[in-house]
Amino acid sequence: MYKETRMTNPDTPHKMNKTEALLRLARPVQWIKNFFVFAPILFGGALFKSSSLMEGFVTFFAFSFAASSIYCFNDIHDVADDRRHPEKCHRPVASGVVTVRQAYALMSLLFALSVGSSLLLTLLAPTDQAPVETAMVTLAVIVFYWLLNLAYCIRLKHYAIVDVCVVAFGFVLRMIAGGAATHIMLSKWIVLMTFLLTLFMSFAKRRDDVLRMEATGEAPRRNTSRYNSTFINQALTITASVTLVCYIMYTVSPETQARFHSDYLYLTSIFVLLGLLRYLQITVVDKKSGNPTKVIVRDRFIQIDVLAWLVTFMLIIYVGGMV
After folding, report:
1. pLDDT tens per residue, range 119-147
2. Are 188 and 194 contacting, i.e. CB atoms less than 8 angstroms apart?
3. Measured between alpha carbons, how far is residue 26 from residues 11, 36, 73, 169 in Å?
4. Rounded to whole angstroms, how far apart are CA atoms 260 and 209?
5. How are the residues of the chain apportioned to helix, strand and coil, as percentages rounded to the nearest 5?
6. CA–CA separation, 223 and 221 (whole Å)
7. Is the distance from CB of 140 to CB of 119 less than 8 angstroms?
8. Residue 176 φ/ψ, nearest 5 degrees
9. DSSP H or E stretch at residue 224
10. Quick count: other Cβ atoms within 10 Å of Cβ 141?
């Protein structure tokens, strides 16, 4: 249940021109999530292969355009609720700076750009890798993601647990698209770990909603009442623990050791543990897990930890594996 709220934020409609509003509607800052399409390249040992990187970048933009198209639809579909929300009322469509018709036009344009970008893979994939098939499989994954998220905006986000699972599965689809575009087979451990890690972050985001509901008596989302602090805390503990175990199993699996010719990958588990603990600290102690993208962009501890993990991982598989 929401209360009527006056728009007193400095970012009011007359402060935002049309171009800024359309850009804000597409939410390019959220494109950071689509770097998951590069995971198959990193874990597949193809980070310095120019053809794989080019295919990865094309897939990244194809996924980013599709995701932005979904953000447009979400703001169109939720416009009535957003206008009653103290913060979301300043979104481009809810504030009236962008009309519903213009939002639909941008949504269609972005989806068309996504399809067009996917088809570029026919020009990039080597002839011995069936370029048309590569483009079609990648496009099919992106279209499935797009349709799934339309269903999420319309209905699925109203069901507790289902909502966070759909969000987490979206990141798995990003990896599948990246793997399909670059012809790199994904490890079952990486797929599971990606799902669990993003499920953990999704539960952390829901915890922020629960705290707001407990403090104000108002549910930020329709399904927030189906969560509470006890459930969320237990869910965070379970998903964080299983994520760490899954990553360790990946690093010590014979398949991984044979692929990278190294049995030292387990050392990178230290950084995964530190990253999970830091995110739990931000969630439980600081109570600032409402926007995972902002957490990653602004928190220096997590940035240094991810960089240290990446450097260590690359040294082991790209340098150590060659020795």
Report:
1. 988 887 665 566 778 889 999 999 999 99
2. no
3. 17, 19, 10, 21
4. 42
5. 80, 0, 20
6. 5
7. no
8. -60, -40
9. none
10. 25
Position of tokens 């570029």?
A: 120
Render pLDDT for 179-224 as a digit per residue (tens, 0 to 9). 999 988 888 898 999 999 999 999 999 998 898 888 887 777 778 8
Taken in order 207, 208, 209, 210, the sign of the CA dihedral is positive
Q: How many CB atoms lie within 10 A of CB 312?
A: 17
Q: Are 95 and 17 in contact (CB under 8 A)?
A: no
**CB distance 13 to 96 below 8 Å:** yes
- Rounded Cα–Cα distance for residues 92 and 104 (Å): 13
Q: At 98, phi and psi to the nearest 5?
A: -115, 130
Classified as helix, coil or strand, 297 is: helix
pLDDT of residue 19 exceeding 90: no
Instruction: Tell me how many degrees the CA angle 316-319-323 measures, rounded to the nearest 5.
Output: 105
Q: H or E element: which one contains 9? A: none
The fraction of the chain above a pLDDT of 90, given in percent, is: 59
CA 146 to chain centre: 13
User: Whole-angstrom distance between the N-terminal and C-terminal Cα of the chain?
Assistant: 62
Among residues 149, 137, 133, 139, the alpha carbon closest in space to that of 116 is found at 139
Helix (H) or strand (E) holding 125: none
Residue 195's nearest CA partner among 181, 215, 174, 216 is 174
Distance, in Å, from the CA atom of 143 to the CA atom of 150, rounded to the nearest integer, reads 10
**Alpha carbon 300 to chain centroid distance?**
20
